[in-house]
Amino acid sequence: MNNTLESLLRFVNLTTSGLLAGSLGFGEQALVPGWRNELPQHGDHRARAIAALTDATNYFNAIGPVALGTAVTLAVGSRGVKPVKRVLDAASAISLAGVLAATIMVTVPINKELEGQAPTDYPSDRSHSLAKNWSRAHAVRTTLGVSAFLCAVASNLARQKA
Which pLDDT score is estimated for 80? Predict the structure, then answer.
């Protein structure tokens, strides 16, 4: 891979992984496929306004996969770089894959199940357990997202040639 292409991929990876980490850490808008399914259907006006922006949200859905794609490309396609840089690129790719997996396989199904329950005056043990599991999964995916961003930054700061 030539230096210009690698520089462009590193810029895209750093930008998208930073946006993803920021969205996970500072709000409920995870920029990965399925994040719209996590918004409450009958929640506050802000959530409905965000969900109403369907044209813009289609672009948001692409940020997680683009970050993962560029990280995998850098981990596999970079030639003549230090092993430390390659390990950091691989760690970033693994972390981003974990973010996508946690969102698609854990938090979205939990949200769908919680929203499918009938409203009650007091939460059931099942809904309390689901909410606790969602909170744990969100903490894991936020940690993975921030870790991926930090690995991308460290990889960009590492020296180029071995």
Answer: 74
